[in-house]
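Q: Hi! First time doing this. I have a protein sequence and I read that you can turn it into a structure. Is that right? Here it is:
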Amino acid sequence: MLAARVMGWNMVKIARLNEELLERISALLVKNTVSLTTSEISKIMAEFYENAVQDGMDRLIEIKAGFME
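A: Yes, that's right. Below is the predicted 3D structure, encoded as structure tokens:
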């Protein structure tokens, strides 16, 4: 999970270069970490990695934590 948080840290460094990108990624992370049933990104990750939607949600939450720090 540390890797996901580090990914968030690195994503925000790039996103800060463009306010529109920063807002868009922030909104996507917030929207997709609310609920397992509404998280389209978690569903895609579960399908791609052949694991549970909860695993994708857990990673997204860590990415979001790194991004928002």
